[in-house]
Protein 1
Amino acid sequence: EYPHYPPCSPRDRASFAYETVSKRWPVILTQVIDAIYRACDSGTYATPEAEEEGKELIRKVGKLKYNISRNAIMEPIEDDGGANIELYNSMLSFLELQQQNMWFTAPWLYAECYLYRHLRTTFAFSKHWKAFDPFRGQKERAFKEMGKGVYDLAEMMHKLDTEKEDLDINEQALEVLFSDMIQMCLWGNTVDLSLLTSLDVDHLAQLQQVGAAANSARSDLILRNDTDALWTHVRQIKNARLDIVLDNSGLELFTDMVLADFLVTHTPFFSEVVFHPKTIPWFVSDVMPADFFSLLSAMTTPHYFGQAPSPSHEQYVTSLATRWQSYVDCGVFRLSSPPGQAEGEHMGEVVQENGVDWWVGPGVYGLMDENEDGIRALEALRGSGLVVFKGDLNFRKLTADVRWPPHTQFDQAIGTLAGRFPLLALRTNKADVIVGLREGFAQELDQKDKDWRWSGKYGLICFCPGGTV
Ligand code: F6P
Ligand code: MG
């Protein structure tokens, strides 16, 4: 039976799960309350009726916070017409049988997904706040601080454009560049607002070290690196489709798009990219369709990131945005989103795919083929040349978030997903679960740095080859 080990759980007081449920969630929920207060003073939410509803929402989020702190029972998700309710509630009934249906006794992964799904229901039942994303302001404010990362990467892409012909003939150079791009995209995942309880500018500056020099300085921090096997796969495909199951908005999404652009524009391997966002506000900073489009418009908004290092840098960013917008317009870059989900005030044009809501459910990926939505999600990935899973939460879902021995093989940990399609996980470690390490390595790390599993300082590049779905 899969998975064979007990779940990561806040029942273990020494775990990051416990730290999260007891300390980090209350901060995140307080930020939600702040966002409602702020919205009440502005725009569409400033009417007396919306404000009244806002107060009610604040009361409900406050109650949720209180319920978590007293380890209350998690109630079934109410039917708001949204996705995954059946799966959430059937898993909850199962947990109830084992008396694990409380905030501090449920498996951490389930409880955390439930938290964001439950929040969505709260807003969905209102009249004025249905489309409200309580994390949107945070996502935008953080991206504005990311100018350095954006300008550096845009300059790098500009240089690549001018060196294109050399790359066409020099496979060795292409391989080095490919590896750099993968690492750049990995470190993009360090930027995660759910870990930053306040916006610390120095910390944000440090997180933006995403160029080639920063890569080599940090390569020791990659605890497993399958880039060679990945390259062996990638170099033999042509005009394939790349799928990216996205994680965070802002600089991380920017690095995802740089990787996508590099592969489509500068290599023969891929000719189209499908980005898979979330359809509800999720783990604070995850990409929703609106965030995808606001990134493109931020790049062409003068002084969005403050003063550019030079007028040329401003130009590099604008021309990148122009190319990406043209890729969106002609369908080379597509957003996978279920019909009706990607509409609304900030959305612009969306190229619809046969998208699914599986990514905001509680299900682990190794059991995707046991659920109808999971099967639809697999269907959407069929035929992909490479599916990239970004970030920590995707890694937790890939590995079922259980306490595997750290030297467990990655392909064992991902259950029935192994071999279905070529799969790459790019994850900086922000949670207890770990697999894919050589034997004894975890113990060495325990001696060296007690926070190595969750500080976000270390990363993994895990590749599992495969045919098509
Ligand atoms: O709070 C839980 C958590 O899943 C952490 O493990 C991690 O810090 C964050 O939320 C999500 O990280 P990411 O954005 O990389 O998926
Ligand atoms: Mg995230």
Protein 2
Amino acid sequence: ERKGFIFDLDGVIVDTAKYHYLAWKKLANELGFEFTLKQNELFKGVSRKRCLEILLEIGNINASQEQFDQWMVEKNEDYLHYIEKMNASEILPDVPKVLEFLKNRKLPIALGSASKNAKPILEKVGLLSYFDVIVDGNNVTKAKPDPEVFLIASSNLGVEPINCVVFEDAVAGIQAANTAGMVSVGIGDSKTLHEANYNFRDFREISIEFLNTLI
Ligand code: B16
Ligand code: MG
């Protein structure tokens, strides 16, 4: 059976969480409250809309729909400004090694991300051409842990869910992969991501031997 490989973006391929943090912190400070790095953990893998809802809960702020939409736009404009100069130096360690391994064996590769900015980011860091399929925040209606994003990726790849392998750094992402019936590989803290089928701190820990067991 042909296998397919699905990668999350933020926290797996690049560390855009720090730029999301700067943009959310700027908005929080403008609204008169603090937003910490620890609180930012709650935002990983979560949609932009849900992030703003949580941020306003933290700041105890009520907003009209119009005001809410305006802050969404403002946050994204600031975020786009922070990521403007991203380049290949921001690719997380050994990600190209794994993508190259898969490409050389003609195995299909997809992106499965909650971000609406996924494509320009892949372009900036020079990895866009590796991806046969991109499913991102523009294509999904239900956020992780709902499996929708990975199921669309599997369908677009033409690979059965049971033959897909997902690399994820967020708990909700691991749960989405598991619910989809896919093989889940946790990238990050193994205690946090204990629901994953396999755990690695980062791609440097992933050997060619291990990859060979997946294909
Ligand atoms: P955007 P992932 C997620 O990316 C981020 O982890 C999350 O913090 C962010 O809010 C979300 O994308 C939406 O991003 O505002 O660019 O549409 O981990 O699913 O690749
Ligand atoms: Mg992520």
Protein 3
Amino acid sequence: RGLQVHFPIYRGLLRRIVGHVRAVDGISLDLYAGRTLALVGESGCGKTTVGKGLLQLVPPTGGSVRYRGQELIGLSHRRLRAFRKDLQIVFQDPFASMNPRMVVGDIIGEGLHALRILPKRADRLRRVAELLELVGLDPEAINRYPHEFSGGQRQRLCIARALALDPRIIVCDEPTSALDVSVQAQILNLLKDLQEQLGLAYLFITHDLSVVPYLAHKVAVMYLGRVVEHGPVDEVLDDPRHPYTKALLSAVPVIDPTRRRQVIQLDGDMPSPRQPPSGCHFHPRCPEVMAICRHHYPVETRLGTKRRVCCHAVAAGLTD
Ligand code: SF4
């Protein structure tokens, strides 16, 4: 609730704080067992920082992260270890997220060793072999090195590593964006199957809206550290209400030649989270901007029971 991650900006030898990068600026999300929440937005909007803040890999500077009734923010490292096994992450780049000098058996079994769940290596390797099978790899691969695998296989290894501790929540941080399109589909299928088998909750971070309907149940659209639209996937994608969501969706190619979608071109780049624009942060790029947008950040408008949109035009009933 109200998660904030602000990074201080230091200057000079005395490291005086001269400002803050408001990477995540007060967002509220819920995750449920067996469900996927997709977090979408442009690069630099704060999606990855949300995932890391949730897992306490970067320290949040405000708000609350509750897991099964327990507040995680502010817990000591020792107390946080008890929750580490339940909360795991799969990173974007399977090439960079594994130690090239370790064999697969040790990479995947590292968490089991660190948390002393399986202190004996032979036990760990048995468990790793099971995990390799679970993610569709040959269990014999435990003695091979990461460079001996293709990109898709390496991402399977990363998923096996995340599963090793029997987690309940996995943050999937753009797990397919470094892969070829054909391999992307295989990884998405694997994630979907694992969720069905294990009842996992996913926070699926992506800049690619086209993969959202395939995997997610709900979607939250982020812009400059805040969620601007949130709701069930089919409702948001069939009838986007926030002008930013509309623009993102308009960029997704439609395969059906009988359907045409007008591409909404946004001017300029996303502003810096160090000095976000006044009022609605999206107003310098918004095709539907009004005078009020320049001075006042919109409060959340509820549409039905499940949707939330932060936009003055939606609040005033002015958008289609
Ligand atoms: Fe556009 Fe105004 Fe809505 Fe912001 S509040 S998205 S500037 S219409």
Protein 4
Amino acid sequence: MKNLDTTLYFVTDSTVVPEELFLPSVEAACKGGVSMIQLREKKSSTREYLQLAEKVHAITKRFQIPLIIDDRVDVALAIDAEGVHVGQSDMPVAIARKLMGPDKIVGATTKTVPQALEAYQAGADYLGVGAIYPTTTKVVTILTSVDTLKEIVKAVPIHVNAIGGLNKENIQVLQGTGISGICAVSAIQKAADPEVAARELKAAFLAL
Ligand code: TZP
Ligand code: MG
């Protein structure tokens, strides 16, 4: 198992903040103690994704926080990011692993135990599991139950993070699940002060 700290994994959404506030929000989240960052750009062109990734990487490197690129192995490799994250309709984990090499981080989204086992066997270092709660960040048709989350944690010997609608007021439900950490978009990205939001969310998770 790779030595990762997935305690508070900030997944970005540049579309919900004014452009000039996006990079400052990434830096603020780093200061607030996020342990990993995923750049998640769904609407950018390849060129825009690359350019933004370079800028975000310059920040995360200063804080020695791993930067994971969502969906795009090519962008991750091009900027020498620490890893890539793939979903069920993206590049399969085994191919992402082959392209990224053994030392980079490969993460996968899984919603069921069979998907989790498959991703683990194909070489994933961590899993994102959800959505646990309704979310405005992604179109989610079926929520993932806390019981399924627990089963996935038991089924695979890699880091499992919960995701979806999580904030400091509602993560109590994750107590006793055995997860390594939580992923959050809105709770940090939409906060008036992302640094404070990250710090408080991390403290709330660590207090579980
Ligand atoms: N995958 C499952 S839910 C989700 C993703 C990417 C979005 C989570 O965003 P938020 O704003 O923390 O609910
Ligand atoms: Mg994806």
